[in-house]
């Protein structure tokens, strides 16, 4: 291998002693050759130039020496010829060591070292070793980069800080959201007792199977009585325990809004099997004044000229508003009270026309800006300031994480383009697809996505807590913050992957993912057939098969062994053939998926796990890029060979950008003069200097 900077012929014995070193130490041997050549410059010829007159331990000659030595080399050809032969011979031996280490992993064509070529120029050798070191540094983990170049792991520290801040933010928001949802739900239950005729507390507990039947009306008189009960309850709202008021300025009862939805024509003559029907739906809305409590809704409708036909009635709604103040706000004891407006909506559903009109109540909460004589004595400002500070910190950390990861992806793209061009020029081949994908870090892509989600969620959270939003955005905010926090914790797996014990799980999932997807595609086809068949045949007779969604949920639960006996016990016995079909259907599905499909699914994952274990024992397959990069040892990390600036687009670090912003052009001028006038070891020179 040729010397890069003023090594003489006496350096050849030193090169031969390093032939058994690993591939990662080629650069160290080159450095030692240069050092020997500097001290022996008076006894031997010059390889590619003269010795360094200043005596510095430089890895590459300067531009002036390059021009002087090139003109002087024409008169020293006879003296330098033996040195060239020794250098080439040692380079061939070193390349043979590299080739032997790469063939044992991959039988495909690997890139050949440029040292194999006779008469290779020192600049080509330097470029190849420089590219190799650059790629080795790129594929290091943060700990190795710290040992090799003392590069501070900014992204790692930012991710750790982000996990702590985001988790604190999520815990506070989850507590606040629970209090908010619980408050609106409790008010909905209170409204059901106040305004729904026949409401019972047993309906407030959600149980499966349901302990009570549907809440419905069956007589025409019940429809009018239910509306009268709601109007009377709204008129006497002051008797309720809750601090409820009317939405008017003088706190007087506001009119209720009743809407009737009817078919345009819907008359049925059942005695002779005839009808008059027009499917167009018309909407009729009217306000019920406060005096309707004395005369009744039915009489008021007749007085208004409204004739109600239940055979054509599709649905009806009764809407009214209630205002209240919540002293125990969602933020805790230090938070100020909140003002709310509830839009209560009683819904009558007669769309099926099956003899029962379903009845339900819903209450949408809308937060208002408290105004008027507002007096609140507490340290609420301090609590609000702390929450806002946490939100702002999360926003800043996520923005910094987004910038660092985007910059890392962009720099990886630049290095990939440079590597592709290098393979074309030096090896005459294209970099493989596996080699190109080595530069794409999907962990960074996931971090960028969760940064965007957390930025949006934190912005919504700040607006909610600052009461800039009057609409209910709790669910939207929780969606962004929840998914973002989920991806943040997934990102911790990236750093656990640096350790062999934890990396086995990640590599197993990565290895098994394509096979699992293909396996699930085949299993999904069988699952879809059972789902559609069960929905069609068992839907009218089994409560778990009433819809396509519930059918799929029931079958998935059976796969996991959940609620099997209840599914068999609730089979319909209306017909013998139906009972026998249910038995055959359920037994075949359970046997197929539990004993066959799940076993095959586990075997696919175990096969991937066994493959990863073999890779750890025998070695991982190496792409052409990894074969070119080679291996590195602990000695390489601590030898200082990575301390030089090997990156053509380096100088874009966080400290560099801050320094440029603060010092403007003075820092750049000072650094340029310092680098130009330095008399100490300069490391590798730039490619521009070599080309000159």
Overview of the structural elements:
This is (Mediterranean fruit fly) hypothetical protein. GO terms for molecular function: NAADP-sensitive calcium-release channel activity. This protein has helices at 12-16, 26-39, 63-73, 77-103, 122-138, 142-149, 154-195, 220-235, 292-295, 297-303, 380-426, 433-437, 442-465, 474-490, 492-496, 500-538, 548-559, 564-569, 576-618, 624-629, 634-638, 654-663, 665-676, 687-691, and strands spanning 216-217, 256-269, 274-288, 313-326, 338-349, 357-368. With 692 residues, the protein is an alpha+beta fold. It is extended and about 105 Å long. Among the domains are: 125-195 and 377-498, no CATH class; 211-374, no CATH class; 507-629, Helix Hairpins, CATH 1.10.287. The chain is 56% helix and 10% strand. The protein has a six-stranded antiparallel beta sheet with strand order 1-6-5-4-2-3. Helix 11 runs antiparallel to helix 13 (442-465). It contains 24 helices and six strands. Mean pLDDT is 75; it is low at 1-110 and 668-692.
């Amino acid at each position: 291998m040729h010397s890069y900077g003023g090594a003489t012929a006496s350096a050849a014995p030193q090169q031969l002693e390093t032939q058994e070193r690993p591939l990662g130490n080629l650069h160290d041997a080159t450095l030692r050759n240069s050092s020997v050549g500097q001290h022996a410059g008076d006894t031997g010829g010059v390889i590619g130039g003269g010795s360094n007159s200043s005596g510095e331990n430089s890895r590459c000659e300067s531009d002036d020496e390059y021009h002087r030595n090139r003109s002087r080399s024409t008169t020293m050809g006879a003296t330098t010829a033996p040195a060239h032969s020794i250098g080439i011979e040692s380079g061939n031996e070193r390349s043979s060591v590299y080739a032997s280490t790469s063939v044992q992993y991959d039988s495909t064509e690997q890139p050949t070292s440029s040292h194999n070529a006779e008469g290779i120029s020192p600049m080509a050798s330097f470029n190849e070793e420089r590219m190799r070191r650059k790629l080795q540094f790129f594929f290091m983990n943060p700990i190795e980069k710290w040992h090799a170049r003392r590069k501070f792991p900014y992204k790692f520290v930012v991710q750790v800080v982000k996990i702590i801040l985001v988790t604190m933010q999520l815990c506070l928001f989850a507590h606040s959201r629970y209090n908010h949802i619980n408050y609106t739900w409790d008010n909905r239950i209170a409204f059901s007792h106040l305004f729904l005729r026949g409401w019972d507390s047993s309906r407030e507990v959600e149980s499966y199977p349901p302990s009570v039947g549907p809440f419905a009306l069956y007589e025409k008189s019940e429809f009018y009585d239910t509306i009268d009960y709601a109007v009377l309850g709204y008129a006497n709202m002051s008797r309720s325990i809750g601090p409820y008021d009317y939405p008017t300025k003088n706190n007087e009862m506001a009119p209720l809004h009743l809407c009737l939805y009817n078919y345009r024509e819907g008359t049925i003559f059942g005695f002779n099997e005839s009808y008059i029907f027009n499917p167009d739906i018309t909407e009729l809305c009217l306000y019920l004044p406060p005096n309707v409590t004395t005369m009744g809704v039915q009489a008021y409708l007749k007085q208004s000229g409204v004739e109600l036909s239940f055979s054509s009635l599709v649905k009806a709604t009764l809407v009214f508003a209630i205002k209240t103040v919540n002293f125990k706000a969602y933020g805790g004891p230090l938070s100020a009270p909140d003002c709310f407006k509830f839009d209560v909506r009683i819904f009558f559903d007669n769309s099926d026309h099956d003899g029962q009109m379903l009845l339900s109540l819903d209450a949408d909460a809308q937060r208002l800006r408290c105004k008027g004589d507002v007096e609140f004595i507490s340290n609420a400002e301090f609590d609000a300031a702390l929450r806002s500070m946490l939100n702002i910190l999360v926003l800043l950390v996520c923005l910094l994480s987004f910038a660092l990861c985007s910059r890392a992806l962009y720099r990886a793209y630049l290095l990939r383009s440079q590597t592709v061009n290098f393979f074309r020029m030096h090896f005459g081949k294209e970099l493989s697809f596996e080699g190109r994908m080595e530069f794409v870090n999907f962990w960074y892509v996931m971090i960028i996505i969760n940064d965007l989600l957390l930025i949006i969620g934190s912005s919504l959270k700040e607006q909610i807590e600052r009461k800039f939003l009057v609409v209910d955005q709790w669910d939207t905010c929780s969606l962004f913050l929840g998914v973002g926090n989920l991806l943040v914790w997934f990102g911790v797996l990236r750093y656990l992957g640096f350790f062999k014990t934890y990396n086995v799980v990640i590599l197993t999932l990565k290895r098994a993912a394509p096979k699992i997807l293909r396996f699930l595609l085949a299993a999904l086809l069988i699952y879809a057939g059972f789902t559609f068949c069960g929905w069609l045949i068992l839907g009218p007779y089994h409560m778990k098969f009433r819809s396509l969604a519930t059918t799929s949920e029931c079958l998935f639960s059976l796969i996991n062994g959940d609620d099997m006996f209840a599914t068999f016990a609730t089979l319909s016995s209306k017909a013998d053939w139906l009972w026998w079909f249910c038995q055959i259907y359920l037994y075949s599905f359970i046997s197929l998926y539990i004993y066959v499909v799940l076993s095959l699914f586990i075997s696919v994952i175990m096969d991937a796990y066994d493959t990863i274990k073999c890779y750890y024992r025998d070695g991982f397959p190496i792409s052409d890029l990894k074969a070119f990069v080679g291996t590195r040892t602990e000695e390489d990390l601590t030898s200082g060979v990575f301390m030089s600036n090997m990156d053509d687009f380096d100088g874009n670090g966080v400290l560099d950008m801050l320094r440029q912003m603060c010092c403007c052009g003075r820092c750049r001028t000072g650094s340029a003069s310092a680098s130009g006038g330095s008399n100490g070891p300069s490391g590798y020179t730039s490619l521009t200097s070599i080309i000159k």
